[in-house]
Write a structure and sequence with these properties.
The protein contains eight helices and twelve strands. It is an alpha/beta fold and about 300 residues long. The strands form four sheets. It has a four-stranded mixed beta sheet, with helices on both faces. The relative contact order is 0.16.
Amino acid sequence: MPSGRRSVDEVGRESGYGPDKLAQVLPSGKFSVLAGDETAWGLGRDAAARLLDRSPVPLDEIGLVLYAGSSEWGTPFWSPAAKIAAELGITQAHCYEISNFCNAGMVAVKLADEQVRAGTHAYALVVVADRLSELVEYGTGHIELFNFADGAAAVLLAADTPEAPDIRYEVLGGAHHTDPRWVDSYYGEIRNGEVKVERGEKPDGLGEAFLDNFTTLTHKVLTDIGAKVADVAHFLVTHGNQDTHRAYLDALDVDASRSVFQYERDGHLGGVDPLMALEELEREDRIGSGDLVIIATAGSGFTWGVTAIRRT
């Protein structure tokens, strides 16, 4: 996590919204943001370094490094994936970026998993990081974006071989779908040399589209792996909107206790949200061997994704 914090009071002064209104989108009262000397790719590098310290593997056997996020890396015409590989001493990998906004992390996991399963690479490293808070201009009044925060996570994927480190989770399957009707709902503009998110015309029905796509993809993935909703121990959901999160659980007739809610602790960390939630389950010893986990993610575009993993 970055060292910076932004408070609701600061957002209120810049936006003109009162505390009651802001509490609906920022119940945490403060959220994580990059400090002046920090970068999103730097957070991702640090997350990856911690991961490789915990699960050491030969660096020359990491054949793939994917950097997943929202395409605004901070430096134009540049590869954060390659930079992280260079800083970590990974010299034999193909390094590139996956841009699918807050859905990008699980897309990268799916691509990496397919390649290690196929034997293309012994190991693949996925880094998920964004600088979302820096893309928001509070004076625009786009309050649904005010919870954009910053963070990073890393995932190491390996084939299930005797040489691999202890594997914590098996990727069972996943499905993704884009509905391009909302492609122009949000876009970036350069203002005073900085990229800021602007809101375009939005057709009616985006809230319903979130619910329909999440539930449809969940049932598809569960059918593909031969499981049912009742078999799932935990549902981890992108923390973009708490109402959507709860509506998704209600639509599946799933109690909120089978999910993780971190809205009172921080803002929306993009593709990092479900990985932070997974870490919380581990830290609190709420997940055990054989537990099935569904990860529901969504990103601008708009794309929805559902991934199934199982604790080994």
